[in-house]
Write a structure and sequence with these properties.
Helix content is 71%, strand content 3%. The protein is mostly helical. Strands 1-2 form a two-stranded antiparallel sheet. Helix 7 (139-157) packs antiparallel against helix 10.
Length: 254
């Protein structure tokens, strides 16, 4: 081999080494690799149900070992992007908001202050979809809302919290809305709210909260959007107050 050819080979090897290094930096290899695989899926125009290249091919593509690729693929499976079929390989999974919502709910359990942000999002969504909810609600839904309010009153007389009934009221009110993200946000919020300290599940004005729900139902029946919107916005004040008490308690403990 001539010195010229030897130099060409050396340069090729050097470029190959640099290319591999750029593909996967030594810091946060897994997170970087997962992002690279997601970009690869988008750039190759893969669709739900499509099969990915083999782990061996992917390890060559990204310049890492098969075990590193497998770990990244499993992580992407955990967040609902991929699915593994035993003996067949890895496939693109259809999007499901459920997995994202469940991960969000789990993460927020460890960040009590984020429930305020979630409440703000919930408020904005409920107000935004209220008109659609009033237009699409059915008579049977209204009857269910009446029963929920009756249960609220019964629990209040017994000195019990009616957080679950409050949750049911809002779920029924917005169940016909064609936006599943709204429903999931409501589920996440109430799931977190139920885990607050017991005293904070009670409003300082239980009767007032029930009356708000009665007024919401009353105006929902006649599909009066403007009045229902005002009452719904006022009704959130009590929730903010309870969460503020919760935050104050956390601060005192710290």
């Amino acid at each position: 081999m001539t010195s010229n050819n030897l130099e060409i080979v050396r340069n090729k090897m050097k470029r190959k080494k640099e290319r591999i290094f750029k593909k996967v930096p030594s810091i946060d290899v897994q997170l970087f690799l997962q992002e690279q695989i997601k970009k690869y899926i988008i750039e190759k125009n893969f669709s739900p149900g499509d099969k990915l290249p083999s782990e061996t091919e992917l390890s060559k593509e990204f310049g890492v070992s098969r075990s590193t690729i497998r770990e990244a693929l499993r992580a992407l499976e955990g967040i609902g992007i991929l699915i593994s079929q035993h003996g067949s390989g890895w496939y693109i999974k259809s999007f499901s908001f459920d997995i994202l919502a469940n991960n969000l709910a789990y993460s927020l359990r460890f960040d009590v202050y984020s429930i305020f942000d979630l409440l703000e999002i919930r408020k904005i969504l409920e107000i935004s979809f209220l008109k659609e909810a009033l237009e699409s609600i059915k008579d049977r839904d209204l009857k269910e809302l009446e029963r929920v309010i009756t249960n609220m009153e019964s629990k209040s007389k017994e000195g019990k919290s009616f957080v679950r009934e409050d949750m049911m009221f809002h779920r029924i009110l917005f169940r016909r809305v064609k936006n599943q993200i709204l429903v999931k946000i409501l589920d996440i919020f109430w799931g977190l709210f139920e885990h607050l300290d017991e005293p904070l599940l009670y409003s300082a004005n239980q009767e007032g909260v029930i009356n708000y729900h009665k007024k919401i139902l009353e105006n929902t029946k006649v599909k009066d959007y403007e009045k229902t919107k005002i009452i719904l916005e006022e009704h959130f004040i009590d929730v903010y107050e309870r969460l503020s008490r919760y935050k104050d308690n956390i601060r005192r403990e710290v």
